Amino acid sequence: MGEDNRMKDTIRVAVTGAAGNIGYALLWRIASGDCFGANQPVTLQLLEIPSGMQRLEGVIMELKDSAFPLVDGIVGTDDPAIAFKDTDAIFLVGSRPRSKDMDRADLVAANGPIFVGQGQAIDAAASPNVKVITVGNPCNTNALIACANAPSIPSRQFTAMTRLDQNRAVGQMAERAGIPASKIQDVFIWGNHSNTMYPDPRFATVDGQKATDVFDLGWLQGDFLGTVATRGKAIIEARGASSAASAASAAVDHMRDWWQGSNGRIVSMALPSEGWYGVPEGLVFSFPCRCENGEIEVLDNLAVDAFAQSKIDENIAALMEERAAVSELLGD
Ligand code: NAD
Ligand code: LMR
Question: pTM for the complete prediction?
Answer without folding.
Answer: 0.98
